[in-house]
Amino acid sequence: MRILYSACLLVACTATASAAEPAAMATHDHSAMMRSQSRAWTQLPVLKARMKSQDMSSRSYLMQPLNIAADAVEAWSNDLNDPNGHRRLPMEMGGAPLDKPATGGFQMLTAREEQGDVVRVATTVHYFSERGGKNPTAMFEQVKHELEIVPQPYPREHSRYRTNEDWQFAVRFKGQPLVAQKVVLETSNGSRSEFMTDALGGVKVKVPNDFKAEAAQVESHGRRRGADFVLAVSHAEGGLQYLTAFNSGYGEDAYANRSLAMGMGFMLVGMLGAAPLLRNRKTAARKEESANA
CA 165, CA 155: separation in Å to the nearest integer? Predict the structure, then answer.
């Protein structure tokens, strides 16, 4: 039943969860307590960061697993030489506390749930902007779970995924590429797309331009509107059904809403440039009329 549930979840992410799941979950009090409320826009497992402290010198976050029962979050550091580069963050009320490590920079975070013959994993990347700005290619190459979706690359520091951009990901199972594997994309703006991995297990994902058409709204901190996306892949092997999802945020195209503004600007410049010509024509017409009078 759980295999069918995971398959339906991946193929039709808006489908209603199996009625058998709540009964099964009721026998696992601890897991049930850790399962966060499902988000309206997806039923896939995701990891979200919520700021715990506003103090810049000791900034910390709570990592909240959503749609997945997990008793801890695992964190991998950008610094492979750090003895604490891989650590387990126990779950507390509201999430797993994530403090800024000494090396700063990128952190890869995962939450895992095993129920019967189903293994579900949520994955995300968090960036501490204070230090360590290198793109963490080596960190991504580490095998962390059986089924993985790996950014290649991840947006550099102070950047993000944006609409109308193509981004490459690798899908692998036990460190080996998965060929001709379906990957599903969902966004909090309501889009859903499907892609297929190539002969090297890679998949090129186009971030959809699915923000509403009304004039762009600028947030209080000056950045453009943002939304969330999740990529998911499912694979069965050895009598187990694996479901892994990678989630992140994305923003509007850097040129969003500029085309109209540029068009209006060019129109205004054209009108200003044409004004002297119109005046000259009117002056010449008056002179001609005076001469003929």
Answer: 11
